[in-house]
């Protein structure tokens, strides 16, 4: 089963194949944890998000359609868990010790502020109206901070397609907001 690709492993996991799940986890947990750690200062939270991701994979693998890469599907679940955690944290701010002070103050990270920033209702409407192929490119390149090459690999499309979709998405957003 070692030579089976991740997409096929996901299909097998969808049928309840525990061995396929273990192999999928062994292949993908290290890089997922690394990516989560790059976006999250708390290593314990990153490990918790990794476990939540794979719990979701176990439960939802049967819904994997195979249109795109398995790696992209896994990361979309993990990044969704990270965003959810950030939203929860914004509702319940954590107290931290300020350097040189004995008192506790709330100190959100820059990423927390960016993810929880209130967007204009017009922008939200415009984003919802984007076709899925344009939205996924924006998500990969803007929200997830991937390069064009990384996004192309993740989405399973040529780099030029990523660039043109990103340009079309930005044009549509500009038109909708003007």
UniProtKB/TrEMBL annotation:
Q: Please, which domain of life does this record's source organism belong to? A: Bacteria
Q: What is this protein called?
A: RNA polymerase, sigma-24 subunit, ECF subfamily
Q: Which family does it belong to?
A: Belongs to the sigma-70 factor family. ECF subfamily.
Q: Name one GO biological process term.
A: DNA-templated transcription initiation
The species this protein belongs to is Salinispora tropica (strain ATCC BAA-916 / DSM 44818 / JCM 13857 / NBRC 105044 / CNB-440)
PANTHER family per the record?
RNA POLYMERASE ECF-TYPE SIGMA FACTO, RNA POLYMERASE SIGMA-70 FACTOR ECF SUBFAMILY
One GO MF term on file is:
DNA binding
The cross-references to SUPFAM superfamilies, in alphabetical order and at most eight, read: Sigma2 domain of RNA polymerase sigma factors (SSF88946), Sigma3 and sigma4 domains of RNA polymerase sigma factors (SSF88659)
Q: By its UniProt entry, which Pfam families does this protein fall under? A: Sigma70_r2, Sigma70_r4_2
**What are the record keywords, sorted?**
Sigma factor, Transcription, Transcription regulation
The RNA polymerase sigma factor 70 region 4 type domain extends over 123-173
- The RNA polymerase sigma-70 region domain covers 24-90
